[in-house]
Every structure is written in C-alpha cells, then in structure tokens.
Amino acid sequence: MSELLTLADVLEALTGLRPVINPLIITEAAIDSRLVIPGALFVAIPGERVDGHDYVRQAFQAGAVVAFIEHAIDPPVTQVDVRPGHYQGLKGSIEAPVCILVGNTVEALQQVAAFWRRKLSLRVIGVTGSVGKSTTKEAIAQVLSQRYKTLKSLANLNNEIGLPLNMLRLTPGHQYAVLEMGFYVPGEITQLCEIALPQVGVLNNIGTVHAERAGSQEIIAQGKGELVEALPPAPEGIAILNYDDPLVRPMQSRTRAR
Description:
Blueprint: E1 5-6, H1 7-15, E2 20-21, E3 25-26, E4 29-30, E5 41-43, H2 56-61, E6 66-69, E7 78-81, E8 91-92, E9 98-101, H3 105-118, E10 123-128, H4 133-144, E11 150-152, H5 162-167, E12 176-180, H6 188-196, E13 200-203, H7 211-214, H8 217-224, H9 226-230, E14 238-241
C-alpha cells in the first residue's frame, strides 16, 4: 500500500473497482480553496450562499490534483463520472487535475474517509462531551505524541464534514488518532463512528450546550452515548466515562467495551 492516499484508492472507495492507473498521490482534503495545499483533494460543496463549484479552478491553481463535483465546471478538465450506471472503469495514465463527478460530494468525502480508515492499522480515540472536549482531545494527543505518532483533530473539525477531512490526513505511519466528535441531534455520532471506527471512547460530561436544538439534556445524553455504543467489545474496546456526571455514569450499561 502507498504511504499516502492515491486516486486509485479514491476510485476504489467510490466504485468498488480498483483501477490500474499511475499512482497519483493525494496529500489531504479541503473544502475551502484558500486552505488547499499541493496534492490536495478539493471537495466542492454546494451551499445556500456559496457554491464550492465556483472555486474549483482556484483550488487547482493552489495545487489540488483532484476535485469532487456534482456537476460539470467551466472550463472543463479531465472528468471521471462515478455515479451509478456511469462508471466504466479506468486504466492507463491519468494526469492531474481530475474532477470526479459524484451524486453528493459530502457523501463521497465520507465514503473515501471510511475506506481509508479501514486500510489503516491504528488506535482511534473518540472524544465527546458538552464542555471541554477540545481541551480533553489536546491533552490526550499531547501525552500520546510523546511516544507514538499521533494525529489529532484540527481546530473544531468534528462534524460529518470535518471528521472525514481529519481522517484523510492519516498515513500508515500513524499509530494513534484522537478525534473530537461533535453532536447536534441523535444519530450524528453514530455516523461519525461508522467512519472512524474508534476503539476508545472518552465522554467527559453532559451539559445544556445544544439543548435548544436537541431538545433536552436527556436527548443529548442519548446522542453522546452513541460513542460508547459503537465501541468494539472488551478487551479491544475501552470506554472512559466521567463517573461524577449522573448522565454519563449510566452509560456503562450501553457499551460492550470495558
């Protein structure tokens, strides 16, 4: 396996078929053309006010080699359509930049991140909680990095877009990843765990942050507890719970981890 993600990995993740093509290395992924580095995958996300498709050109100029798009861009570049019923396979030499046409760019990002995670052998630690999860993540990563090659979540990239972006920074050389997992409504952390496959879950507290969106602290507890529910059984799975928090303590009954 290559030391870094390649275009062949991306196409295999999206289609189930691995193409026989030249090794086009992908360094990381970005959704903001201003943050693109050479070799990056740019994910064009259409929004209510800003459409990432308008910035594909800028991303390529900044060094991106691949872009996920949902519709053709102008002027056109090499395009590979991987939507169901359109992909016919690929072989030979592919020159950057390349646009990959998908049905949904966010879902494609998540799919590639999940695929890449499953090709890597490392320990993933998921961290969540209402208050202090970023501080907790930083502390864990600081300790682990003294002995192991450790990746940690950047800034507050902790949702269904940010976590996959972090995952695509991983290489086979990483031994640990410490990933912050955010929550707004039930089901979100389950989705993040399906992508990241954490073996360790850290849940520090349940507060009222996001209660106006979630509905109540009990619903927040239900959603945050999805992290410990997703952990593998002991001895591989480890749940670290705040015993002093009355909404966290009962979560020991929701996990197969130790």
